[in-house]
Amino acid sequence: MGDSDSEGSDGEGGMGNVSRVIIRPPGVSGKAKRGQICFDAAFETGNLGKANLIGDFEYDLFLRPDTCNPRYRFWFNFTVDNVKQDQKVIFNLVNISKSRNLFNSGLTPLVKSSSRPKWQRLPKKHVFYYRSPHHQNHYVLSFVFCFDKEDDVYQFALAPPYSYSRLQSYLNVIENRQNQAEKKFTKSVLTKSLQNRNVDLITIDHVTGKLKTNRIDRSFIRVIVILCRSHANASPASFMCQGFLEFLLSSHNIAKILRENFVFKIVPMVNPDGVFLGNNRCNLIGQDMNRVWQVATEFSHPEIYAIKNMLREIDNSDSYQIDFVVDLHAHTSLHGCFIYGNTYEDVYRYERHLVFPRLFAGNAPDYAANNMIFNADEKKSGCARRFCCERLSDTVNAYTLEISMGGHYLKDGKTVAAYTEEGYYRCGRNLARTFLQYYRFINVLPVPLPTEVRQKKRRPRTHQSRSRSKTRYEVKPRPKTTRCYAPISYTNLSICYDSGGSSDEGGFSPTRAVAPGSSHFSGYRHYRRVASSTTIPSTSSQQHQQTHDQFALLRIKSGRFDLAHDPLLHDYCGKTKSQSPEKQTRFEVPVNVPPKPYLSIIDLNQLTRGSLKMKSASFED
Question: Nucleus: is it a keyword of this entry (predicted)?
């Protein structure tokens, strides 16, 4: 049961919202007592259509749909007062139209009170989002709250509201704050809305030498257009736009460079009527302002019509060129900030179109690259980015910059940090920094030399540093020593060669020249091979077998090191010794014994190829 203390809920400020409605239990009348909650949404950006008491402390709340369009019901913003201290209630939002939203990912409503004006998120353990069989199986958002102060007025909202009046106050403040002799920007009224509200245009134009510009000589002035708040519920986009504007008007070096080289056209609120009325997406007549760009008229969509004329005028000018059209939005289903772009048949234009999002991702730590989309969907043909890329010049890069109503993922990829107003401001500042980085990347602005880069300020010395010892120890140079090769031991080598080798020389490695600095064994092996091929003919199989290296692995393993009876060593050693035939080593079956291992490069390909040849030959046999 409900009762109203004041009339006018259907007026311009209410448009169907509840206006000071006190909810009494059934059968109770008279003056409202403490604890009989009073709901109110008849204020700017407010939205609550109806409230019902269904239990001792449980209320069903119905959101008011957009004006002239019952399809959209998601934004809510209402106040509660006349509460009792420590009173606990359950609020059920029962007619949310969008089932896929951030409430599935942990988003919770915001709350503040008159004594605590800072917005705070409700704890997750007190918020529930589920299908309710008592409400035709629709999704219901339920949250529990305990009022701790009787005299406070509590306000609940989906996101921090940013009203039309707040924008006008902010623009008046920065306009009065700037120096009249050196104005950093000019504010003008682009057009009037259907309810006769101002559609403001902020122009920042400090570019020098404008009279010498000419498109033919490619000396035109580059223009950057920023649009914001096409949808009424996208209040985070207004905070982002304010952060961008504040940074651009500041005394920061990046802001000075941008103001001196580029012209900025900023429309901070495209849909002032929908924002004032507390709609979710639409304007006064129920039209989605980001789906009517191709059919906008002067009578039904004067805001979009005026912006289109401004863009065409700049695009057809011989002195100006539009480089960017960035439309700022808030997303209700995804986390982080990200960019929506277009696709083009021209490969070079498409590659140029991808540069800015990549640079922005490097400047924004909360950027969600997985949510980025580049498409040419026909359903989005009426949005700003699709209209600008199709109807304006090929040099225009049109984007939609989205920022979440909830939060962004941290580095671990699992934890979500909720956005605050400062977080939205920071995203706007990152956008301004990316513009400077982009124009330096395409060589429009010079890249500063390392000496011109501002050095980091060091912390001042607030205390005396720790005393250090003045004793210096002299570091003596290392003595020069001769390099010698480590001896190689062959006593424990147990290598089994199943095949007879892989070289074309009958099992030995290819003959190599003696490398400078090589060991005596490698030089001795080379000497024997040369001698066996030139001076000493093979007279018998025994002498042929004795041509093997005396330091071969087989003889080392058997322990026979008699070098004197080798006929090849007669000239090499200059001595001969007699040796009985019994002590001579005989090989009944020809065995290919590899040479002594030495440090050299082994041709693995040749070894493998030879082994395969021998195996294939054995298979053929």
Answer: no
- 423 by DSSP, 3-state: which? helix
Rounded to an integer, what distance in angstroms lies between the CA atom of residue 554 and that of residue 593? 7
Please give the C-alpha separations between residue 395 and each of 228, 321, 359, 389, 392, in angstroms, as whole numbers. Answer: 22, 8, 18, 9, 8
How much is the pTM?
A: 0.72
pLDDT in tens, 42-99: 999 999 999 999 998 999 999 999 999 999 999 999 999 999 999 999 999 999 998 8
Please report the pLDDT score of residue 505 as a whole number: 41
Contact yes or no for 373/436 (Cβ under 8 A): no
Q: DSSP string of 156-171? A: EESS----HHHHHHHH
Q: Return the SS3 of 40.
A: strand
Tell me how far apart the alpha carbons of residues 53 and 21 are, in angstroms, rounded to a whole number: 12
Task: Look at residues 422, 444, 285 and name the one whose alpha carbon lies nearest to residue 366.
Answer: 422
487 by Cβ neighbours in 10 Å (0-12 / 13-18 / 19+) ranks as exposed
Instruction: Name which of 607, 531, 252 is nearest 523 in CA terms.
Output: 531
DSSP 125: G
What pLDDT digit, counting tens, does each position of 400-449 carry? 999 999 999 998 888 999 999 999 999 999 999 999 999 999 999 998 87
* Amino acid at the residue 107: L
Q: Considering 402, 421, 474, 505, which one is annotated as catalytic? A: 402
Within 8 A by CB and 6+ apart from 279, the residues are 47, 66, 67, 72, 75, 232, 233
Q: In this predicted model, what pLDDT tens digit does every residue of 91-113 receive, in sequence order?
A: 999 999 988 999 999 999 999 99
Distance between alpha carbon 338 and the CA centroid of its chain, in Å? 8
Give the pLDDT band (50/70/90) at residue 580.
very low
CB within 8 A of 20, min separation 6: which ones? 4, 5, 6, 38, 39, 40, 42
Query: What gap in Å lies between CA 217 and CA 215, rounded to an integer?
Result: 5
- The Cβ-side half-sphere exposure at 406, using a 13 Å CA radius, reads 20
| Cα dihedral: 338, 344, 347, 352 (round 10) | -40
Per-residue pLDDT reduced to its tens digit, 486-524 = 554 444 444 444 444 444 444 444 444 444 444 444 444
Handedness of CA 13, 16, 18, 20 (dihedral sign): positive
N residues, the chain: 621
Spatial distance between the Cα atoms of 107 and 90, rounded to a whole number of angstroms: 17
CA distance 335 to 609: 60
Question: Is 402 an annotated catalytic residue?
Answer: yes
What's at 509, amino acid-wise? S
The rounded distance, in Å, linking the Cα atoms of 475 and 412 is 47
